[in-house]
Amino acid sequence: MTPTPFQRVPWTSAVLLAALGAGTVRARRRLRAIPVLPVTPPAAAAGAPRAAGWRLLTARGVEPDAPTFLAARAHAEAEGLRVLDLLPADLPAERALSLLRLVDPARYRQDRLAAGRGAGFAVLVTEEVLSRAGVDPAGPRPDTAELLALTRRLKEYAADATGLAIAPGLSCGGAGEPGGPARAAELRAQGLPPGALAAVQLGGLALLAGVAVRQGRWGAAAAGLYWLQPYLALGGPGSPLRPAGLGRATAARPVRSLGAGLRTAAAAGRDAGPDPAADGAPEAARAAAYRQDLAAGVGRFLEPRREGCPWCGSDRLTVRVRVPDLLQGKPGRFTLEQCGDCGHVFQNPRLTPEGLDFYYRDFYDGRGGEGAGTVFGRLGAAYRGRAEMLLPHADPASWLDVGTGHGHFCNAARDVWPQTRFDGLDMGEGVREAERRGWVETGYLGQFPEFASKLAGQYEVVSMYHYLEHTREPLAELDAAATVLTPGGFLAIELPDPESRMARLLGPVWLPWFQPQHQHLMPAANLREALADRGLTVVAEEHGPAHQGNDFFGAVALAATRLAPDPDRPWGPGPTPRARLLGHAVRVASLPCFAAAAALDTVRTAVARRTDGGNAYRMLARKDVP
């Protein structure tokens, strides 16, 4: 049988051609979606009044003129923006393509959780946003990496008022493509891993070279499309950008990309350790504090084992799992026991308050703060689902989110409830940051039961999303919620489901066990009964929609952490060449496992949505009216 022309196309080349073609079209479409500032004649700019209330922050070597500043201010004011990143007209080709891969201009402003992105050369900001963000505009001029990091921060303080624009009169000051150390620094400033991205870049180049040599004209076509991509995406008549040396950059792209990938990989390897002052605390001081804590042993962080279930009092207890700290690799071992009568799962012996402080430290803030923020920033669909659960039942004017962290849910929920006042409560200092960002109106710092009498009857909605399982006394938290709600108000709760099939299949590496942070995991029937005892009637319950698609990916991540903990962790024995080599080997070996896990999670999520059998559940309960 004679093969058809389609059957003669090597599938690798076909996939590469499709991906590169789609990427090129996407970049060109996104570029056309970025507004272009009008060119203001210098004579008109000379007679214009001073633009009070605005500051233009520029990287070293960038010198904007008055017309550019005035045009940017006029555009920002007309569009209701408070942060505007300006793209120089001569932005180098690879910088422009990188930005267009990260940002969809059509959605960037509306996405309240999107990371702040820009070119890193000039940012127009209101003085009010700078003040809330704690940025001194009179400080030393930043380099490109520092300005990129600042743009990320400023977007958090203007979540729905940040935009991009091309400034025809602005030049990047002769800056070309960044070298290895500079590129690694710029990637880190954007919250991206330079080592992993360099590996992907080099792997992609190797694949293109292989198909070009082995797959004939189709392989050559794929390599050629990659080669010509800068000009196809950025060049031609009508392009709003005029990248300096676009022709040379296109002609030399494979060689330049190879060099950039190698230099970035080398720079990432040299700087593999943590930033010594990532949150203002020197790493040496942090390590010394941990050594002092560990000198007395971690056994003191556990209370005596209890003999009865904290939910129903039964003494029919069995061990569900025993695990070390798989989240951070801190010393200690933890046991979750299950009640044979009510099914309640709880940490036994449980951590003392001092123990909780020790094991939470550097997870949501400090050393781990940026990573935690990145994870929370990617949960937009989950936040929207939680907020939309209220739509058939209420139109709340006031909402208290308990365990709000930095307020990510409240920030995202404003898209669903724009007229609702969102307040937040948490034990961590992140709630103060949420208030400064404007993600919550008022931030309460402390334990929820301590605020119950002060806030009695003030809120139409109280939410506890993945909060109750972290608490020492969940029934006291439910008492506080019943007190704070107005009659007819709603309590929204989301929790891991200890009855999930995946909990038994994956055992100790089931991520929602989340030891040692999770203290209690309640079956849905137990929670329904506890709510009824407090005068709250369940009006909606969701299992499939609450599913978090991370069962297999989380299991691989926990297993990899156990095999090769971070050698630079300040509570560890200290980095050694052997530990670094082991960590690198485990990361490389786990890549195909992560890929397979992601595929399995995709299937698992589809099944969970269809069968209503996820790894978490949501409940919405209404407080009975006397």
TrEMBL record:
<keyword id="KW-0489">Methyltransferase</keyword>
<dbReference type="Pfam" id="PF13489">
    <property type="entry name" value="Methyltransf_23"/>
</dbReference>
<keyword id="KW-0808">Transferase</keyword>
<dbReference type="GO" id="GO:0008168">
    <property type="term" value="F:methyltransferase activity"/>
</dbReference>
<dbReference type="InterPro" id="IPR029063">
    <property type="entry name" value="SAM-dependent_MTases_sf"/>
</dbReference>
<protein>
    <submittedName>
        <fullName>SAM-dependent methyltransferase</fullName>
    </submittedName>
</protein>
<dbReference type="GO" id="GO:0032259">
    <property type="term" value="P:methylation"/>
</dbReference>
